[in-house]
Amino acid sequence: MQEENIKKAFQNLSFSPKDDLSFSILSKILKKEKRIRRIKLVGHSLLGFLSIVGFFPVFKSLFSELAKSGFYEYFSLAFSSGSNITFYWKELMLSLAESLPVVNILFSLILVFVFLLSIRYMLKQIISINHMGRSYV
Amino acid sequence: MLFTDQNDEQIITEYLSSNKEEVFRFLLNKYDKHAYNFVRQMVVNNNDAEDITQEVFIKIWKNLKKYKNGQNFKTWFFTIAKNTTIDFLRKKKSIVFSDLESKTNEIGEGDSFDFSETIESNELLPDEIIQKIQDREYLNKLLSQISTIYKTILLLHYQEEMTFEEIGKILDKPLNTVKSYHRRAIIKLREIA
């Protein structure tokens, strides 16, 4: 009973915030979230741009390695003198595989992957920014 | 209303998976008055209390991913509110928690003082004082004269109806220390009332 009376006294003491406090909090959070999304958008755009710039030397190097290793020659064999291909297709496949510049291909694939990923995240940020503008406030 | 049948943990899980603002808005509407009231009792000024409450919710929003499932949300929430308020008071160079804790010995007059002997087990405050503290202004005046840590414990226990164990988690103190502080707070109230 005593405890209940003390509780009652303390609960009478409560202070209430202004009616617009939750609105102000949501607006502040919206601003912060928009800022974070914009920073992420810039970051991903930069990454996308850098991966496009990276395409030139990486693909140039890939094609020159393919030319040096004789890949094109082996590859063109696949479309000539059909009777020989049927006998030696295993050897041809092996030669093709051996002539592949694995490191260059790997770099190219990583770059393509980074580019696609940056596009995905860029779109995600753009959609989020537009969505926030409509729904938060 | 939406989410009313869900507990805080489920609401947070829902927000983290959907990122829908109405879910966060529900959580905000549920706790904004509690947060504001708690902060306002500590800082006195309305504008400061609003700023700190905003800061509290921004921290909650930023750290929701760090909230562990199974943890008591109310405890976690008030820990953030308490820490944000202390940071504010430190910045303003007002009295801080750590300074106040050293003052807690002033009543004890020695380490061996047994507080449990000071208060009869069934009576926290005499009826006369209980009658007097029903007056809002009077209780407010009394609370302004006691240290922040005592005030925090009284407010969390009697206003927010939290257990001493929950309060211990918020203040990062063992259960017995919280109980001891609570007794000291009551003794202090009796002295100054």
Could you explain the architecture of this structure?
- The complex is a heterodimer of chains A (137) and B (193).
- Chain A has five helices and no strands.
- By secondary structure, chain A is mainly alpha-helical.
- The longest helix of chain A has 48 residues, at 21-68.
- Chain A starts with a helix and ends with a helix.
- In chain A, 9% of the residues are buried.
- Chain B starts with 7 loop residues before the first helix and ends with a helix.
- Chain B is mainly alpha-helical and 193 residues long.
- The longest helix of chain B has 23 residues, at 21-43.
- Classes of the chains: A mainly alpha (137), B mainly alpha (193).
- The A-B interface holds A 2-3, 5-18, 21-22, 24-26, 28-29, 32, 132, 135-136 and B 21, 24-25, 28-29, 32-33, 36-37, 40-41, 49-50, 53-54, 57-58, 61, 122-125, 130, 133-134, 136, 139-140, 143, 154-155, 158-159, 161.
Main sheet: strands, sense, barrel of chain A:
none
Q: Give the percentage of residues in beta strands of chain A.
A: under 5%
Largest interface, and how many residues on either side? A-B, 27 and 34 residues
Strand content of chain B: under 5%
Overall residue-averaged pLDDT value of chain B: 82
Q: What's the β-strand tally of chain B?
A: 0
Number of helices, where a helix is a run of at least 4 consecutive DSSP H or I residues of chain A: 5
Q: TL;DR of this structure?
A:
The complex is a heterodimer of chains A (137) and B (193). In chain A, 85% of the residues lie in helices and 0% in strands.
SSE layout:
The complex is a heterodimer of chains A (137) and B (193).
Chain A lengths: L1 H11 L8 H48 L2 H7 L4 H17 L3 H34 L2
Helix pairs in contact in A: 2-5, 3-4
Chain B lengths: L7 H11 L2 H23 L2 H18 L9 H19 L5 H7 L1 H4 L18 H7 L2 H9 L3 H12 L4 H8 L3 H18 L1
List keywords for this structure.
heterodimer, A: 137 residues, 5 helices, B: 193 residues, 11 helices, 0% strand
